[in-house]
Amino acid sequence: MQALQVNAEVVPVLNAGFESGATASVADHWVERPGEATNSVYFMPAEGPYDEPGFITGRAASIKSTSSAYIEQVLLGITAGDYDYYILNFSIGYRNDVQNEGDIYPVRISIWDINHDMEIVGENIRIIAPGVDNSQSPNIGSIVNRTAILNIDISKHSNENVSLRFSNQYDSGGLGAGATMVIDNVFLEGFRRTAHWRFENNYDDALGEHHGLPYNQPNFIDGISGPAGSKAIECDSDQQQAIKVPYVQKALSPESFTLTAWIKPYVGSSGAYRAVISNRDTDPRSGYVLYATNTNAWSLWTGASGGWYKLNGPPAEENEIVFLAASFEATGSSGDDLIGNTKLFVNGRLAVEDTGVYYKPVVSGYDLLIGAGANEQVSFDYYFDGVIDDVCIYDDVLNKNQVAAMYAEAFGFIQGDLNGDRIVNLPDIAVLCTDWLATYSIHDFEDVVNNWLFHAEPSNLSFMSYNIHHGVGFDGVLDLERIAQVIEQTGADVIGLNEVDNGYWQDVHQAEWLAARLEMDFYFGPTIDDAFGNAILSKYPIICSTNNLLPTDGGQEARACIASVVEIHNRPVTFLVTHFSFNDQQTQIQQADTSLDISNYARGDMILLGDMNSEIDSEPIGHIKQTFRDSFEAAQIVGYNPGGRIDYVFIPWKFNGLVNFTEVVHTNLANIASDHKPVICHVTVCP
Predict the structure, then answer these.
(1) Which of 80-89, 255-264, 292-301 has the lowest average pLDDT?
(2) Residue 190 in contact with residue 11, Cβ under 8 Å?
(3) Mean of per-residue pLDDT scores for the chain
(4) In degrees rounded to 5, what are phi and psi of residue 271?
(5) In 3-state terms, what secondary structure has residue 601?
(6) pLDDT at 173 over 90
């Protein structure tokens, strides 16, 4: 999510560290499942406080796996309709109270409807058993910071009182009894729309703060979005009808925004500017207007010192219902103006976009208008002629998947489902082709297909696996800059790193240093204390990550597998980054199987990167190839591929794209920078 958010609010979670409470089975403000408090939930271990610096200290919530054990806290004063989504950050750990306990799965994090005793939204996560034995009971391990994003369908929930719930449910999938999970340091933020005018026989803001006032009394008629029986407003330009919303700067003129509305222009309304929503000023020039222009095109205008910046889109078809979404994303500033990117979506599809656009939020006291423009004039202007429904302002930038989902949900259909059977399959293609033959020329067929897929574009990406040997090269010199240059020269987008130092040999957090040097996101997953392990670098945002310890035998060096969700062009891709044990095939097989278990709960497409310490025809790699395919085998063109290779980029067998080229990088610099050469895979990912 972009950073300039006005309506990001901290949601109070009382006793977030579980530090207060009369006894070990009580934490103030938290409630356990009735009748199970002494058996399934406790808030301080019998052995004394936890001591995991930076993660868990003192008291924490320990929740055993009993299929129904949970803790929850009522979010005081919060109802389900208050926020569009929550971002929850917390620490979570694995604890075995008895020997040989299994994974923690599923851990369910939920926003709960107290009134109806049902879940509103939730997410499952998993932590793999960290290889404990009898002598380590009780222990605590696999401590990670975790982020969960919980999206609320506000159209289905409004006034219900809600709680935050953590539950630890028994895993009956053959993996053994689940272990106790430990939760601490809970931090919750809510994000919401600035305003939403539903026009259900009133002009009120559904969020309760920015109510509209009728100007020349628009009519209420049957709605053009939402369920049957809903309402919309009908504006007559001759009667100069519109809605006025009293000016509130930060709410109605955020620095980054998305506007959405359902529209039906009336026949004969073309030839004049018609504003759907307008919040502007001309002295100084500022604000935004979502127009149907005098040339009958949909258009987003943003005002700034240099004039009006216009993003013109497709035609505004008369008497046709259309869903519009327009956004401005601030990426910088110049004087009093913001600089950023604009996008215009029509019926769930990105129609046009621009970069380097200027915008200045309105700072005057003029009303926001729905169905008219020229806020600064006494009698307004640019009146809309037609139907307007469900107008929203977000102080956030919605991505194309979110916009497409809004459009599809309003009609109750699935994206690509053309025959109404709620499945996207070959019969839908038959409908597509039939319509094309009846309506289009052969030259239009690509456009028809793109329309069917909401015009999603393929992406060219490159993924790398690189064991950097803590920056020490073949010449025995520790030089992290050489590692950065190798990565930089390849142009890799996402890189899985092994043998990354964080104070073990060198007093430098190497993953953090490389990320800053290459201007990338990163996540570090330790295997030895917090000082040595794996890492991931990404040009794209890393949404969330977990570090999962892998099984090892006896006194072997600890191993782990990172699972990071990366948002690439508005879609989640899960990257697994791992490093298997050396010269122990049975342990490697266990580590391969555990990595596959982790992949079962990945979000979106999956890519597995790492140093497996096993060659391609080995049994551990054979286990991996049940789910993944070596990118060399899938590549259209194969580059340098020496024998004895143990570093891999694996893709799923059902990969939604094309593997163009894979090679082991053997430039002069790569040959000396580490004792391993990086493996890079170039792909085209389909929409």
Answers:
(1) 80-89
(2) yes
(3) 81
(4) 95, 0
(5) coil
(6) no
Give 539's DSSP letter: S
Smallest CA-to-CA distance from 396 within 257, 290, 279, 260 is with: 257
Tokens of 339: 């600089």
Q: Alpha-carbon dihedral of residues 162, 166, 171, 172, nearest 10 degrees? A: -30
Q: Classify residue 592 by its DSSP letter.
A: H
Closest CA to 367 of 233, 262, 243, 273: 243
Cβ neighbors of 64 (< 8 A, separation 6 or more) are: 39, 40, 41, 97, 168, 180
Burial class (CB in 10 A: 0-12, 13-18, 19+), 314: middle
Burial class (CB in 10 A: 0-12, 13-18, 19+), 476: exposed
Question: What amino acid occupies position 26?
Answer: V
State how far the Cα of 599 lies from the Cα of 87, in Å rounded to an integer.
23
> Which of these, 170, 39, 183, 184, lies nearest to 103 by C-alpha position?
170
- By C-alpha distance, which of 665, 589, 586 is closest to 624? 589
The H or E element that residue 413 is part of is none
Q: CB burial class (10 A; 0-12, 13-18, 19+) of residue 477?
A: exposed
Neighbours of 652 (CB within 10 A): 15
Residue 576: is its pLDDT beyond 90? Answer: yes
* Residue in 154, 401, 410 with CA at minimum distance from that of residue 261: 410
625's tokens: 């190839």
pLDDT for residue 6 = 39
pTM over 0.70, yes/no: no
Q: What are phi and psi of 38, to 5 degrees?
A: -80, -20
Number of Cβ within 10 Å of residue 598's Cβ equals: 23
**Omega cis (within 30) before 106:** yes
b/e 116-146 (16+ beta carbons within 10 angstroms → b): eeeebbebebbbbbbbbeeeeebebbbbbbb
pLDDT for position 56: 57
Please state the φ and ψ torsions of residue 556, each to the nearest 5 degrees: -70, 155
> How much helix, strand and coil, in percent to the nearest 5, is found in the chain?
15, 45, 40
Residue 165 near residue 74 (C-beta atoms within 8 A): no
Q: Contact 91/56 with Cβ under 8 angstroms? A: yes
Q: At residue 356, what is the residue type?
A: G
Q: How far apart are CA 419 and CA 501, in angstroms?
A: 56
